[in-house]
Amino acid sequence: MSNKLYQYLGLASPKRGDVGLELEVEAVVGPLPAVNEKKWRTKEDGSLRWHAREYVTSEPVGAGDTLHGRIKYLTDKLQNPLIGVLPNSPRTSFHVHVNVTNLTPKQIWTAACAYWLFENVLVRHCDEGLGTREGNAFCLRLTDAEACLPRIKTDLKHHRFPFEKLNNDGIRNMGLNLSALARYGSLEIRTMRGSIDPDILTQWAQELNTLVNRSINFPSPANLMDTYYRDFGVVNRLLFTEQFQNIIRAIPDWRDLVEENIGILCEIAYVHDWDKWEAKLDKTVDFGPMRVPIPVEPEPFPDVEEPQPPIEAFDPFRARLNHDRNFQFQVRRHPINEDFR
User: Fold this and answer.
1) Res. 311 pLDDT band, cuts 50 70 90
2) Is 114 buried (19+), middle (13-18) or exposed (0-12) by CB count in 10 A?
């Protein structure tokens, strides 16, 4: 029996619940309410504007029939017109943490590859024509974050603790945040816009939970890709509900969007023999009576602003002189190209 993620995290058993939720909200009229009940809690978020808050579940919650009511309890409080919520601000988003503490590292990588296979079409669905999700610096698609590929491959060749090398800001800001594995035991998907429609948010969270849990039908990432090349329709039917399959097929050029990630994805899916990798990983890591959690890099200290010298009185002559000097310097360093004269 292969070791599971909860063992690498130093937990006695897998976490309960299916998904953890984070909803970022901005409002331009009035202050946002503090919601600290029904497993919701409120956090301040300095990265947002206006009246801004982030609402997160205090623990993983079930992704079944009760999820819609839990989300609607929150969104009903946010739909008050006196608050003036910006429902689709480019700075806000809805993050879903899918609990994977009961999966093995190989199963987790298979789930990640299954998501990446459809990521571009899923992001198009999340964007809904707003133009705020594709290329967003806080939810980069795999095709936008190729610089992270060497770090991912380095972790895959590491035989001590899986996911140990993925704790950095570059990985954290990907649409699929793998650094959440070591911190929370989850795959965090950050691509959905900051909607306050409970139907949209519920369907998205449930489909992601379905995708991750159905991906274990494929023994490994390599098997997933082999199946894709043999019969793409099988992969689509196995990973999504019938209703969501229809939503995907209705997106223009959806097959082309899937194809965009294939080249990068093959570098991950065929990086090594997954059975041998997992067997070696199980032999290398011996928990014994004392479980050793995955090492997590400490958060960097926040930047401290250096004291600035006092502002001098404005001198128009000196300002003009500095402007002329800078202009002359730029002309010497960057001569005008003949083609553009």
Assistant:
1) very low
2) buried
pLDDT digits (tens, 9 = 90+) for 264-279: 999 999 998 999 988 8
Cβ pair 195, 105 in contact under 8 A:
no
Instruction: pLDDT band for 287, please (50, 70, 90 cuts).
Output: low
Tokens of 46: 């300095």
Spatial CA neighbour of 181 closest among 163, 161, 158: 163
* Cα of 9 vs its chain's centroid, Å: 20
How far is Cα 236 from Cα 234, in angstroms, rounded to an integer?
Answer: 5
- For residue range 23-35, list pLDDT tens digits in order: 988 887 778 888 8
Taking the model in full, what pTM does it have? 0.81
What are the domain boundaries of the chain? 5-284
The pLDDT of residue 216 is: 93
280 has pLDDT over 60: yes
The answer to whether the CB of 83 falls within 8 A of the CB of 27 is: yes
Helical segments of 157-220, H only: 169-172, 180-184, 198-214
Asked if residue 138 lies in contact with residue 170, where contact means CB atoms within 8 angstroms, the answer is no
Distance CA 148, CA 155 (A): 11
Pick the closest to residue 59 from 126, 24, 103, 14 (CA basis).
14
Look at the block and give the residue holding tokens 């947002």.
48
Question: Cα separation of 75 and 197, whole Å?
Answer: 7
